[in-house]
């Protein structure tokens, strides 16, 4: 006799009764998806100030606006592929953006991040 009362598997739509107290049936073991590989360390402080100055000296205008034939002064040093998605903190992954374009891009990246989490949850 198990000491704990059986509980349904907590996987969405499963509901198989679990007797070992883990909360998950053998088909749906708990995922360790909280453990994600750490993103490379962000450059901060004085080093970042210098990199920004170099970038804006080289390319002072927002690249996204420029693509739409708009002329906007860049204020953000943006990672084209975000560090969280495997991008590198190197010049070829850096572009100058104005704060409006940077905001829009960050929002899209956050939305993608949320969807990735949700997919991982549903696959689990
Ligand atoms: Zn299950
Ligand atoms: Zn822009």
Short summary:
By secondary structure, this protein is α+β, with helices and mostly antiparallel strands. It contains three helices and four strands, in the order E-E-H-H-E-E-H. The two termini are 29 Å apart.
Portion of residues in beta strands equals 5-15%
Distinct small-molecule ligands in the complex: zinc ion
Question: Which structural class should the secondary elements be placed in?
Answer: alpha+beta
User: What's the story with the biggest beta sheet?
Assistant: 2 strands, antiparallel
Kindly describe this structure.
The mean pLDDT is about 85. The protein has helices at about 45-60, 65, 100-124, and strands at about 5-10, 15-20, 75-80, 95. Strand 1 and strand 2 (about 15-20) form a beta hairpin. It has a two-stranded antiparallel sheet. A two-stranded antiparallel sheet has the order 3-4. By secondary structure, the chain is α+β, with helices and mostly antiparallel strands. The chain has a domain at about 45-124. It has three helices and four strands; from the N terminus they run E-E-H-H-E-E-H. The structure holds zinc ion (2 copies). One zinc ion binds next to loops.
